[in-house]
């Protein structure tokens, strides 16, 4: 996958960190393997060792640069041919407030424990919100704070 240079945050021998190409949530970063594998078990030992250190550095840099309320880190993998990668999703207070203000997402409360759903934001539900609203919606929510180029620069500086 070709990643435009302005979206690249950091590169190493085994890894590339870039802003998510289709998300309009500033700071939604991807940590992707340079090796064409889709399993941790298939990575070279050095890539695995570097991964842990880089994930920790990236988390620290994002927390310092962006000060999100939550930082979700996840691995999914539904795109055939796409190398192993991890999502780093900063969730700010304003993103969580948008989630709670959007009544469509209250339908999710009928699943699981309502006792906790009304008092806590569920990470899976909020991740779905970020994907749908900032990644797929033709009219994404208004961003509060810095834009994507400024956020990329701030994280680069701390890495």
From TrEMBL:
Instruction: Read off the SUPFAM superfamilies from this record.
Output: HIT-like
Enumerate the InterPro entries for this protein: HIT-like_sf
Which named protein is this? Answer: HIT family protein
């Amino acid at each position: 996958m070709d990643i435009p240079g302005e979206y690249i945050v950091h590169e190493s021998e085994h890894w590339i960190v870039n802003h998510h190409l289709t998300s309009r949530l500033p700071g939604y970063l991807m940590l992707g393997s340079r090796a064409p594998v889709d399993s941790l078990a298939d990575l070279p030992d050095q890539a695995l060792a570097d991964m842990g250190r880089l994930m920790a550095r990236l988390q620290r840099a994002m927390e310092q640069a962006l000060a999100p309320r939550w930082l979700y880190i996840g691995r999914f993998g539904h795109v055939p041919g796409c190398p192993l990668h991890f999502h780093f999703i900063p969730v700010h207070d304003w993103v969580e407030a948008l989630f709670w203000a959007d009544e469509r997402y209250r339908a999710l409360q009928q699943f699981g424990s309502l006792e906790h759903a009304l008092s806590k934001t569920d990470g899976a539900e909020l991740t779905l919100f970020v994907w749908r609203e900032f990644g797929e919606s033709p009219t994404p929510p208004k961003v509060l704070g810095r834009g994507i180029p400024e956020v990329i620069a701030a994280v680069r500086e701390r890495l």
